[in-house]
Here is the input.
Amino acid sequence: MIKKIAIYSLICLGIIISCSKDSDDSTPPDNTVDKTANLQATGSSANDILSNANFDALLIEIAYVEGFRPTTTAITSFENFIRERTFKTNIEFTYLSLPSSGEETLTTQQVADLEEENRTAYNNGTTLAMYIYFADAPSDGDEEDEGLFTLGAVYRNTSMVIYESTIRQLASQSNFITISDVETSTLNHEFAHLMGLVNLGTDAVNDHEDSEAANHCNVSGCLMRAALEFGVPTMKVLESNAAKGAAPVPGLDAECILDLQNNGGR
Here is the structure.
């Protein structure tokens, strides 16, 4: 299941702690590794991400096209988000620099094929591995005539794509919201889907799923609102929060937090 963050162009965007280690890793994939556990449906690893029952360490491989590495600020904020909502304290980021795919746009299948070709981090022992690809090409699902663009998507239980070129292009239209703000919003929203929100591997304690937008929250101001993904300007939300003196990136509401806590999270 693909979860997308959509924005309307021109007027909007559509959606470390010291023990962590960053490194550059150009080791080629080991084809003898059992990849099965990392090729499951979105949300199926929600409890493993949230709790330490089966995995007490998290390894996040950041694969990025050269020139499209995510900002340090966004990755720091992303890690803080993970620590706030999960019990993982041993979190490591590795960075894998890749050449351009050479494609003008990318389908989800092409993104998955690139992962198969380049991913090096898979579950190992009590370490849960995740893969995030920062692309230099936009999604093939973008509808430019309608100003509808995709910023990120999850497509497996430990896999995510961020359309970094699209984020940079659209964030540049604002004098108030930075690239790292949009990166953080996208990363947190998509990762929350991997944690099972909403009703995507983590059951809702109380009914708060949007009846008109599956797997999204109906509580105003929540990070998991469909407004940050379909049709309502993400930029307007971020700028409105900033104008109020709040952090631009929305947080999870009480119902979403309760769901995560009920499935092993904080």
